Each structure stands twice: as structure tokens, then as C-alpha cells.
Amino acid sequence: MILGLVLALASALGTNLGSLFKQRGAALAPPIRVRHPLRSAGDLFGSKWFAVGWVVSLGAWVLHVGALSLAPLSTVQAVLSGGLVFLAVLAERWFGFHLGPRQWVGLTITAAGLVLIGLTGTAQGSPHYSLAALITVESTVFALCAGLMRISSHRSIAPREEALLLAIAAGVLFGVCDIAIKYLSLAPGPVFGLISPWTLTAAISFVISFYASARSFQLGVAIEVIAITSVAANLAAIIGGILVFGDSIGSGGVGVTARVLAFCLIIAGAALMPAPLRATPSPRRAASDPIS
Questions:
Q1: Whether 136 contacts 120, CB under 8 Å
Q2: Which of 151, 155, 250, 289 is a Cys-bridge partner for 255, taking CB atoms 3.0 to 4.6 Å apart?
Q3: pLDDT of 192-201, one tens digit each?
């Protein structure tokens, strides 16, 4: 359990650092065109900053998988949500962003939630899952993402609104991927895991979220988009952990209350982060053509 939380914290640091690198690179790349996915991917990886960010994010993902195999899904995602603490510090000190009082309040609240999560952690019981709940949750998330991406493609949607919609869609798809990976970690054996349809689910989720997230970087404000993506991913995975895998939310009345409060603090702190921010540099924004 403790090792899983340590891996989750390291993953949170790498994820947010990688996201900042990727946003800088995506903002300099040509607009993503869904009709030309390979060319768009080539343009993105042709940017040094995006390529470096992707490698960093890949390392963070490996740590994330390790955390999922050692700790309950909802707990791992709550810790990752607290990774916005790292996002705030990195963005202000090394990426030229200024955070106001509201953002630092959010940082403090999130840190408090993390401490409470650590103090109220309980040992993980026998691993189990509900296949019916897994199918229901993932089908619902895919339907939600399809709706969000459809709405974002309307010509009446402003670039900033499109960025937020795509960020939410990318986030919940990242959450779907996490749920599928957690299921695969509980599979009877590695061979079954490799041939499982949930391997394909995780792969499809990753590919769609890759393009949606990159396009949101091109259209939106860096910190706002990254924070919204993180919150959406964590909420989707936390709910999946509770509904699909029966993750505990505490032991006894006091434990349950404290753990629920911790989750609320982390989510509330994350919600305070994406307030208006001023970037010292003025990076070139991508064209406002929709992803589709």
C-alpha cells in the first residue's frame, strides 16, 4: 500500500511535468486534423518539447501501472489528483506562469487531502471486481466522450470552450484506460491479460485521449487545460474504483468520514486551480479550427 502511494506520487510529478512539456510543444505544432491522424502525430512528435514531454509522461505511466497493481484504484487516483501541487510549483517556477491566491489556496487544500488520505489508508483486501459494473462504467464513459467531442466540433463553440470540452473528454478517457489497466492487473494470468478485450479498450482510450488532449493544449490555457484533464481523469477512475472494484472508502464511522472528507478536499483543491492565470511569455496559439 505505502509503496503504491509512493509510486503514485512519483507518477504525479512526472505526469504534470510531461504535460507542461507537451503543451509547449503542441502549441508550436500545426493544428491537429482528425482526417490526417498520422500526419498530425508526426507534426506533434516533430516538436522537441512535445517529444520530451511524451517520454516523461511514458515513464510516469509505467510508475502509474505499478501503483495500480499495489494500491486501490480510488486511492491512487486521489494521490494523482494531488499532483496538481507539483503542477503549480513547476508552472510558476520554471514555465513562467503566475499563480494567484486562489490557486495557492487550492494547492494547500489538495495537500491537506493528501495527508488525510495517507493517515486513513487501510490494507487492501482480496482483489475482486464486477464485470457488469466494468462494462456499464466504461460504456457510459465512451458515450459521454463521444457527446463531448461532438459538441466541441460545432462551429459555434469558441476555442477556449472547445479546449475545455476536449480536456474533459481526454481526462475521462484516461480514467477509462486506468480502470481497464486495473482490471488487467487482476486477470488470472499474463496471457489472458494480453488477449483480453480490455487491452483493446485501454489502447483505444489512449489513442483518442492522445489526440483530444493535444488539441486541447493547442486551443486552451496550459494550466487550466491540464488541471481540468487531471480532475476528469481522477474522478472517472475514483468512481470506477468504487463501483467496479469495490474500493474501500474507510474503516469505521470515523475512517469513512475522514476519507470522504479527504477525497472532497482533493477535488475541491483541484477545482480551484484552473482560475485565470497570466503567462509571462506569450506562446503562439494554434489556429482555432476544430479537431474534426
A1: no
A2: 250
A3: 456 677 788 8
